[in-house]
Amino acid sequence: MTSADILTENTLPASLTDSLSIPGDFYKMAFQFQQIMMVYESAIKQIETKLDILNKESSVNRTRNPISTVKSRIKSPESIAKKLEKKGLPVNFDSMMKNLNDIAGVRVICPYISDIYSVRDMLLKQPDLTLIKQNDYIENPKESGYRSLHLVMEIPVYLSKTEHNVRVEIQLRTIAMDFWASLEHQLRYKNIAKVPDSVRRELFRVAETIAMTDREMEEIAIELQALD
User: Fold this and answer.
1) Which pTM does this prediction carry?
2) Which of 21, 197, 218, 227 has CA 20 to 30 A from 68's CA?
């Protein structure tokens, strides 16, 4: 995969977008981008398969599943270009693959906080997965109150003639954390108006309440399990 500029006309200099009027260049770059995205999609499928197998194994060996839901997404070309620009990096394929860890994303929703770390530990034991980075926003929440465990993991994707080591960002959250994060995202990024300080404080208060609820629900679950 050679370096080439992403096909997002609004983010490229006029001199470069003019050259894209040549059909051959356009099709070549479009096909190249499609190939790259296919590799990232393949990495996501492999992660999802691993999670599904681990969840089924846990349900057999234990009394419940540690995973409630698994979601995935691929960043759009526009989002990729904007993030590279924000970081002051070149907007091209090589830069994208070297510098962005979240082009491919998997979100794992767990019933309890302990399940998050159990799933994390199971993933770390997989011989073909390499941990690149970990951010624990459960132990150290963001200023906004956001909580989640973020893992950047690298997985090999084998094609017919080539092998690619692909990074995937895995976010692990409880159901309550995911509920809060989804609403907070809408308020923060879908609303044109700036979020007032009073709303920020309220969001933080709700995040703290949700965190306390997570802990209390887990304590109840432990008590019920002891009765079996």
Assistant:
1) 0.82
2) 227
